[in-house]
Amino acid sequence: DGGITQSPKYLFRKEGQNVTLSCEQNLNHDAMYWYRQDPGQGLRLIYYSQIVNDFQKGDIAEGYSVSREKKESFPLTVTSAQKNPTAFYLCASSMGDTPGLEKLFFGSGTQLSVL
Amino acid sequence: DQQVKQNSPSLSVQEGRISILNCDYTNSMFDYFLWYKKYPAEGPTFLISISSIKDKNEDGRFTVFLNKSAKHLSLHIVPSQPGDSAVYFCAAMANQAGTALIFGKGTTLSVSS
Q1: A59 to chain B, minimum CA–CA distance in Å?
Q2: Which end of chain B is more exposed for a tag (fewer CB within 10 A), N or C?
Q3: What are φ and ψ of residue A57, in 5° steps?
Q4: Do B64 and B75 form a contact (C-beta atoms < 8 A)?
């Protein structure tokens, strides 16, 4: 069954701690994305990657880091520099930026909360 | 500066009636538009899309209309069903390499029976 998997579903972070959210896809998609959802804020782009070993900052990249060592995986690290990390994090993938193929497939999300 | 705006945070409709969700955009480079539906604590799911070369796209109960001159699109759901109750996000993208979808803030649709 092809899909995009995020783990864990719920994550708690202590002050000053880095945490990493996992995102894996077996759709053979080239592009992967991280969005953050806050109440009343919609989905805001954190980072995205169009190809392995390359990624770009989105609108709210400060306090976050990513890596794209494998096509299937795009982990997001929420660093201690992110002062307001509590949010619902969504990972997505797509076949790429070819016209007509921009449709994103989303994972089920990770709810991050600060203790 | 918001490039994709959904100015109505919520919409309430009776079952069987039409739901109209609106979306405005400011970036004239956007040429591909999508609507996503999202239930609480789940990822959004793709609903329907439209390219800028069209002004209407229909899929079952869902129709998206695009008015390029007004930079406005709308999603019509007819007839509305209680299961349609969810948050609907409008998203847009420019046909340029290296860009990503930009989402609006969403509209919460409540369909009562």
Answers
A1: 10
A2: N
A3: -75, 145
A4: yes
What dihedral do alpha carbons A38, A43, A47, A50 form, nearest 10°?
Answer: 160
In 3-state terms, what secondary structure has residue A28? coil
Contact B78, B65 (CB under 8 A): no
Cα dist from A49 to A54, A55, A83, A91, B19, whole Å = 6, 4, 24, 11, 35
Express each pLDDT in B29-58 by its tens digit.
898 899 999 998 888 998 999 999 999 999
Residues of B whose CB is below 8 A from A40: 9, 105
pLDDT in tens, A21-48: 999 999 999 999 999 998 878 889 999 9
Can you name the residues that pair with B30 across neighbouring β-strands? B94
**Using omega within 30 degrees of 0 as the cis cutoff, is the peptide bond preceding B44 cis?**
no
Q: Which residues in chain A have their CB less than 8 angstroms from residue B102's CB?
A: 45
User: Is B10's Cβ below 8 Å from some Cβ in A?
Assistant: no
A114's tokens: 């600060």
CA B92/CA B108 separation, integer angstroms: 19
